[in-house]
Amino acid sequence: MSQVTTTDLYEVTMALSYLREDMRAPATFSLFVRDLPPGRGFLVAAGLEAGLDYLSRFRVGRSEVQEFAEAMRRPVEDLEPLRGMSFDGQVRAVPEGRLVFAGEPLLEVTAPLPQAQLVETYLLSLFCHQTAVASKAARCVLAAAGRPLVDFSLRRTHGPEAGLQAARLCALVGFTGTSNVAAATRYGIPAVGTMAHSYIEAFASEEDAFRAFARTHPGPVTFLVDTYDTERGVATAARVLADLGLGRGCGIRLDSGDLGALARRARTALDEAGLRDVQIVASGGLDEYGVASLVREGAPIDTFAVGTKVGVAADAPFLDAAYKLVEYDGRPVMKLSSAKATAPGPKQVFRGPGIRDVVGLANEEPPEGTETLLRTVMRGGLRTEPPDTLTAARARFEADLAALPDEARRIDDPVAPAPTMSTRLTVLTTVVRHRIEARTAAGQET
Amino acid sequence: MSQVTTTDLYEVTMALSYLREDMRAPATFSLFVRDLPPGRGFLVAAGLEAGLDYLSRFRVGRSEVQEFAEAMRRPVEDLEPLRGMSFDGQVRAVPEGRLVFAGEPLLEVTAPLPQAQLVETYLLSLFCHQTAVASKAARCVLAAAGRPLVDFSLRRTHGPEAGLQAARLCALVGFTGTSNVAAATRYGIPAVGTMAHSYIEAFASEEDAFRAFARTHPGPVTFLVDTYDTERGVATAARVLADLGLGRGCGIRLDSGDLGALARRARTALDEAGLRDVQIVASGGLDEYGVASLVREGAPIDTFAVGTKVGVAADAPFLDAAYKLVEYDGRPVMKLSSAKATAPGPKQVFRGPGIRDVVGLANEEPPEGTETLLRTVMRGGLRTEPPDTLTAARARFEADLAALPDEARRIDDPVAPAPTMSTRLTVLTTVVRHRIEARTAAGQET
Predict the structure, then answer these.
(1) Which residues of chain A lie closer than 8 angstroms to B321, CB-CB?
(2) pLDDT tens digits, residue range B179-191?
(3) What is the pLDDT of residue A339?
């Protein structure tokens, strides 16, 4: 499947029209989230690495032109003007892992209008999805309060490709492992996982299953103990581990029932069997709310495995993100209609201590004591720096998270910081709005 | 990325252990949804075509073995037993497009245990996602009550690959078009789409934009009218269309505000301009609830474009699906723990008139007047029939939908039919449960 044709048809009809009208002047589009979903005190910027890969490779070749023509039911010749187009623009963006808030650009693309337009849909698809999932996973990290988390989401993500991203995004915010083999090897994330209920059921007894597993996998093992009866399963696991002289690095996994109560009883049983080093892993429908509740009640769980609800960002599976034209040919533009009005002009985010953000214009002087969030990551269609690493992104995430106010960090009913608008951006917005309103009233809208 | 390594690590550790223990007897796994999410009166079976593609190609080669070894931090030699494994089992499944309910297998895989286990995660990822999205889209079709629907979801799906699937699944339940070019050409779905707000903004005036668009795209056009002021936008669109002698096949698109009220005013304005043939397309955050409400109030909207909420199945973005071992080496097995108990044995679904379903055993005689839902679609690792078509799947969907009771069809608080269990399956479940409980109590679980 071509990444170039993985786009909305209207990007193509518009690009073609721009070319025909000779509208190739530079355009700046801004990608931002209008409002945070309920239950989010912050968003974690994500999608940029995949976005830059996409832009680097973007090229409308012969087969893409044919596909466009087929979709438009037009002769191939009509689409020829698009052929050979690649992306040679500039990109300014917030690096992955940084926290962002409503109305703050994650990315600004400046390129000849047809190019900047054509890349809209694919970029949105990457940023919406990845930022939604990273933000959900980040809340699990807060809820776990220092205990390790691992990603088990692959079976429930929106297809295997989304699963690969979910594993990466979980690692980006500090998860210590993933069950996903392909993601583990691609991104250098520790792979985790041992056995399913089917494994236990395939053997004549739970004990036979545990012993067989230990034979195949010398070294630390984790036994799944809830296939038939959890307390008996724990006792059987303890007996087998003790018998084999195993302990440190080993674990048992609870996957159903009242995880807090079961973990307490399992801890007692393991301790009484002299297996103080054997850890307890809990899984089964967990998200930040479940994890926070278990942590609050002091459940002796050493590692939380989260899957489904995190991998699909179940309570906020999409973001209200937009990719809006903010300047064309040096002229700031904006949309006025209803609740979706946008602010004109290329922007910058100025971040002060305690995550006090001001959204201003890209060419403003940063207010004293602030840092700028967007940096130039692509120029002339080429990356300005080597690909980012998960380690660097995680470090940025952790630094921003540490500075985030408590009310935005809390799991229940968080309140996100509201960025303010700089004076210059406020003035420009007013001026452009009046200009458009005056000309619309006159029946002529520039 | 290898499809084979896009799996949970535990599938690999288990498969390896099965091989070492010489447990290669046939195993049957059943893939089913435990419970329907709130707001669902039915599910639309989907994922099978992609699943059969995956199984047909499944082969553990040298590079997969290396990846497994890397993930497990084990020498490559330890993983060699897996090398060369492909899928040569049998698959029975419910064809795509049919309606399914809680506890009904969508798919049953019978193969040597290591193979049947290794394919679990990838199959779940396909079926969970695709069935969730198809079911959401199907509800939009019900809500639209015969008016056409088109898919605009690509920018918000969980990555571009999920967007491709969303377009296909929307078409499967009867959408008439998609904005997604790659999906349109791959699946033969009509591509739709014209212009974004950015297009209007890039021109000196809305009228200039409309005229330029019509120059580039001779023939029917759809003008987006809500960039600045919707009523003025409609008037401008009407003037340009009338001027150019356009009408039939043309449209205007409303993308924000009170769509019902705006559509009524737009219809009046268009009619007064003699443009009775110009259609009204509505988009902007619509799902089945929004569409149903517009239809109920009699809004003169000709086509609904739905995106975000359908593409991610926003209110139910995952299904509680499982892939459970139900028989190994001729022995029916089941899981007992807590709320997740499963029924043993290979199964069949018998459907009577009015979608009265009985879940029974695969080798039962069908009750009189019922049809069987699962059919053999793969034998010896090969498809038993040519790939399915969207047209055929849509016909199955429409036939089942027509037979579905009203309470399951309604948009608000639907009630799904509850399949019953056949006597033979009930008896087997009781027998297996007692056998396991007796042996668990005796500390030995066969």
Answers:
(1) 155-156
(2) 999 999 999 999 9
(3) 60
Rounded distance between C-alpha atoms, residue A26 and residue A161, angstroms: 33
pLDDT of residue B337: 64
pLDDT exceeds cutoff 60 at B313: yes
Which CATH number fits the domain B194-282, given the four candidates 3.30.70.2190, 3.30.930.10, 3.40.50.2300, 3.20.20.70? 3.20.20.70
Cα dihedral: A117, A122, A127, A129 (round 10): 140
Q: How many residues are present in chain B?
A: 446
Q: For residue B389, what are the contacts with CB-CB under 8 A and spacing of at least 6?
A: none
Burial class of residue A14 (count of CB atoms within 10 Å of its CB; 0-12, 13-18, 19+):
buried
Token output for A188:
């250098």
Please, are residues A13 and B196 in contact by the beta-carbon 8 Å criterion? no
Inter-chain residue contact B336 with A184, CB threshold 8 Å? no
In this structure, which CATH number among 3.40.50.11540, 3.20.140.10, 3.30.70.1130, 2.60.40.10 belongs to the domain A9-133+316-441? 3.20.140.10
* CA dist B103 → B42, B84, B327 (Å): 12, 34, 16
Confidence (pTM) = 0.97
* Best residue in B49, B155, B227 for a mutation probing chain A (most A CBs within 10 Å): B155
Residues with pLDDT less than 50, chain A: 445-446
Q: Do B162 and A164 touch (CB under 8 A)?
A: no
What is the rounded CA–CA span in Å between residue B15 and residue A442?
73
Residue A426, CB-side half-sphere exposure with 13 Å CA sphere: 6
Backbone angles phi, psi at A149, to 5 degrees: -125, 145
Identity (one letter) of the amino acid at A35? D
Would you call B180 and A8 a contact, using CB atoms and an 8 Å cutoff? Answer: yes
Q: What fold characterizes domain A144-311?
A: TIM Barrel (3.20.20)
Spell out the alpha helix ranges (H) of B304-367: 308-311
Q: Would you state the pLDDT for residue A338?
A: 58
pLDDT the model gives residue B444 = 52
Q: How far apart are CA A177 and CA A183, in angstroms?
A: 10
Q: In terms of Cα–Cα distance, which of B240, B295, B296, B304 is closest to B270?
A: B240
- For the stretch B395-442, pLDDT in tens is 999 999 999 999 999 999 999 999 999 999 999 999 998 988 887 777
Task: Indicate if the pLDDT at residue B251 is higher than 80.
Answer: yes
